[in-house]
Design goal:
three-stranded antiparallel sheet, 14 strands
Amino acid sequence: MRSDRPMRSEYMHWAKTLQRARFTLAESGMKAVSLAELGATSDDVALAPPFGYGDPRLRDAIASRYGIPRERVVTAAGTAGANHLAMAALIEPGDEVVVEHPVYEPMETLARHLGAVVRHLPRRFENGFRVDPDDARKAVTSRTRLVVLSNLNNPAPAAIDEPTMRAIGAAAEAVGATVLVDEVYLDAAFEAAPPSAAKLGDVFVVTSSLTKVYGLGGLRAGWIVAAPPLAARMWQLKNLFGVDDAHPAERLATFAFGRLGPLAARARGILDANRARWHEFLTERALDLEAELSPIGTTSFPRVVRVDADALARLLRDRYETSIVPGRFFGAPQHVRIGLSGDPEIFAEGTLRFGRALDDLRSGRA
């Protein structure tokens, strides 16, 4: 076994052991929807799955959302499962893979686990973490086989607009590469969202799920949109990974697709309340935190100016029962990620504690 092949995600271990707190400002996905809120009953759940490759009703619901045929849809265990399946189908050991930076750590770690040689495509703080098409063209070389992006970005809520996405696709296509776009946060841009990359050509492979915006993470309802021959290859690879998804979750996910409008309205209400408070807090703390006041997304990724970001995260957790995500997990150690998707009362109290921790560190009371 190669000694440099990563076998764990440092971020996911942290998230599963230290992310939750009394006042959690660390979660990027909407707080969970109950069965009652969803409107589902036991009649909407079944244990015996249909025979074949995924529940056709769920695949049809996903396909309808994109305006594509069912043959382009592969279901998976959440966006994480979708990204794993897609990357495993697209990467050979030694392939060059261009990965955005800052990056959601499991994405880069997975590419390295699969044997890729990783190059970074910068998303610059000075540019609001947007992708510059010139940077994309420079990052892609004749050896590149895959470009990995998130839209909206995680950790920062920056969108890639259609012209930029097309430019990235053209650069990749010119060298025979594919572009994988994780769109799990895209619906959190609401009417400001750019079109899905799934609509821009076969050079793009798109992943997403019902987790981050719709509060249905427990269903692990993820999917991949790809050209039919590639989708067929992914189904065959899935036979080695996990064979089938949990059918009760498939049934509830199919049910949920008929109710995405109300679920999106729920998400928007929560995000609007927390975003208003967060922007107020950023204005109050302009000497301590630097961040764009973004109107979209479920996260913010401020740069911590006058104190150490890791020390801030530790103090918040240890003294103030409040959690934020250290930016080192995204390759940006002087930043922290804030999730805007929790209960507004808890979020508001968490920001007050955030301010106290900043004051403690600056005054030497830590």
